[in-house]
Amino acid sequence: MNSDEQRTLYCDEAIKYNPDSGDAYFYRGKAFKEMKRWDEAVANFKTALSKNQGNNEYRQELQNAEFEKKKANRKDYYGILSVSQHASPRELKKAFRKCGLEHHPDKVKHLKESEREYHEALFKECVEAHDLLSNPEIRAKYDRGEDVLEQQQGGNRQGGFPFGGGGFPFGGFQQQGSGQRFTFKFN
Question: How many percent of the chain have pLDDT more than 70?
Fold first, then answer.
């Protein structure tokens, strides 16, 4: 049994003797936080804060635990590409190519349909991971724990056209008032 597990047992005993003590819940929450058991940590910090609502330390630890829980529940883009968090752009590109060789739909079309779907899903995750991690600004936000998927889906991810809409990126070029349409012919 490690020291954090031992601390939770001590806190359990303290809570048994004094269930109104916010400190016991707080320290048990800290032990769960050290073990990266975010649900239990959040629950204990919430209980501690409910017992002593004016305690800013309890509030801060609750916010930190909720943030870490959110980070823990998101996709691990580094893990998808099998690279370290400090991977260079060249290493990211190499890992993406390797993923493409293994999971690209053209490479697995000879497999059963269920296996093809599995590989296609993995390939989509590799593309998503590469898109996010190869952009330095978005990668920095991801590393800080910010939610980058909402930001990513605003740009090129809607329909594949950078200006929204569909087809021609600048719309129909309608003249003001007359409703006349211009068409372009290319030879």
Answer: 79
